[in-house]
Amino acid sequence: MNRPVVVSDSGPLIALASCSQLKLLVAVFDVIHVPQVVLDETTADRSRPGASDIVTFVQAHAQVCPSREDAAYIAMTAYLDDGEAQALSLAQALGCGVLIDERRGRRAAMRHGIPLFGVLGVLLQGKRIGKIKYIAPALIQMQMNGYRISQALVDETLRLAGEVS
Predict the structure, then answer these.
(1) What pTM was computed for the model?
(2) CA distances from 84 to 32, 47, 62, 80, 87 (A)
(3) What pLDDT score was predicted for residue 124?
(4) Which residue blocks in the chain are alpha helix, DSSP H?
(5) 110: helix, coil or strand?
(6) In terms of Cα–Cα distance, which of 95, 127, 110 is closest to 21?
């Protein structure tokens, strides 16, 4: 199976760290790029839950990329935060996908033709390839830790995972 190359935004790293599933990224993606600003956003406060796990994961499994100042990045900063703009600019430059959950960032990726991946898709793929048995506990843990996911998306993800009774 060909695994895609991806640039990660902050949200999915935080979400997967919050449910102890960062390791799924290695199973689902061939190469994981993390813009320096995204790493800084997710780990600046080491007392925040999951921050140390993200540092350890990135050091072992990801390629950290320096900040970009290209035209795509500059244009995207008008409507996206710095991490999202960096992630999308890098994904566009590398010709790879982006792992992003924030709605505006996803819309921008679609406008620019950048392949999209989200944390729920990572969980589903992790289950499909046998790396996790159930998605529901991870979803519950992410929500308990403050990760916002619409109930409709939770319901659809559980349906696709075959975890609806």
Answers:
(1) 0.94
(2) 15, 23, 17, 6, 5
(3) 96
(4) 10-18, 23-28, 36-43, 51-61, 71-76, 82-94, 103-111, 119-128, 136-144, 151-160
(5) helix
(6) 127
Q: b/e for 108-118, b at 16 or more Cβ within 10 A?
A: bbeeeebebbb
Superfamily of domain 5-160, CATH level 4: 5'-nuclease (3.40.50.1010)
Place of tokens 């999308």: 88
Residue 42 CA to residue 52 CA, distance in Å, equals 9
Q: What is the pLDDT of residues 64-87, one digit of tens each?
A: 999 999 999 999 999 999 999 999
Give the separation between CA 64 and CA 33, rounded to whole angstroms: 6
Instruction: For residue 2, give the nearest of 108, 113, 97, 119 by alpha carbon.
Output: 97
Domain range annotation of the chain = 5-160
Q: For all residues of the chain together, what is the average pLDDT?
A: 94
